[in-house]
Amino acid sequence: MYKIKTLLVLIVVIPSCFSQNDTSTPYSLFGLGVENKTATGGLTGLGNTGISQNNSGEINLINPASLGNIQQKTFLYEFGINGVYSTLKTNNISDTTYDFNMSHAVMAFPITKNVGMSFGLLPYTKVGYDIDFENPIEGSTDTYISRVTGSGGLNKFYLSSGVQVFNKLSFGVDLSYLFGSVNQETNLYYDSFVNITDVNYYRGFKLKTGVQYNLIKNTNKEITLGAILELPANLGGDQVSNSYKTSVGGTKVLIDENVESDLEDFELPLTFGLGLTTKLNSSLTTSFDFTKLYWDNTNQVQNNESYNNQDIYAFGAEYLPTDKNKYWSLVKYRFGLNYNTGFLNISNQKIDSYFASVGLGLPMSNHSKLNISYSYGREGSTSNSLVQENFHKITLNLSFIGNWFNKRKYD
Question: Which residues does UniProt assign to the signal peptide (predicted)?
């Protein structure tokens, strides 16, 4: 009964937590916002690698084929939070921001032997910006100020399953439903004050498949290959607009109220990824991932930006001491690197990013673990009057292993 109550609390509370997620970066102005880059378990500390990771005690959202490796009579559930401290700077000014978010709430369990399932809710994108523009008045040397503020983002609910078809080969499929709103408010200051609010709602499905193959698997050595394929998807959208005007004398005049219109579909690209995980002794595990997103094949509405193909390179290393006599010898020590070429090209400048991470996997009991990671990175550039973001990120993931399917025994 306690576990049922816990599940009900999660279902009620978690969606409201995601609705309060926020970010502060000018690059969330473009597209659907910035992607939620937090991974489950210890994968954030491993540079967000995971295509070929198949730890039976951790939930891997990157490749659904890993679900075929979940142990029977167990139930895995995990929550994640993160905090980001950022410095935003141009060639002339700089500012600092701090954001705190819930990153995910996910669960996984076996269906039968070698078949596992997972479901959960997490932010897919986040939007948060507050930008002032100085605009010239045609035929005059005067200017007026417009302030554009953005908020919101999309959430992702997923249902995935994985099956181990042979001793070394696993397949998986992930179906996700994306939904949410991207909100933009524009305030114009000139002879009068004009407020324009647009709420853009998007929704749609996307499908991902994955495969993992244990090339070598024995007591002292493991080599695992992995691949993922995410099919292109179209997100349908509609917009609700409101606007009003306030004169210098304070008179408020409604211009438009709840004007509904259809939006062009937002196209998500074909994505392909390859991964390699090696464990050449009982202590050291390394992972390499490469992911490519084919944005060139999408037909996005573009203003001053263009969408280009995106490459992501990731590396992770995990060390587990062989001496088990002390608590710190039970801790997993992690390191990761990640470079992302980005998909945005603004003023002939590619908006790329990178981060380096370190992490710890801290056992709290036989059935729970706290994964902590710290990342430092950069996104964007100060070239061509753009903005560069330097960020420090702390991630906390709390995972539990429950024996939900064991029958209680009585003496």
Answer: 1-21
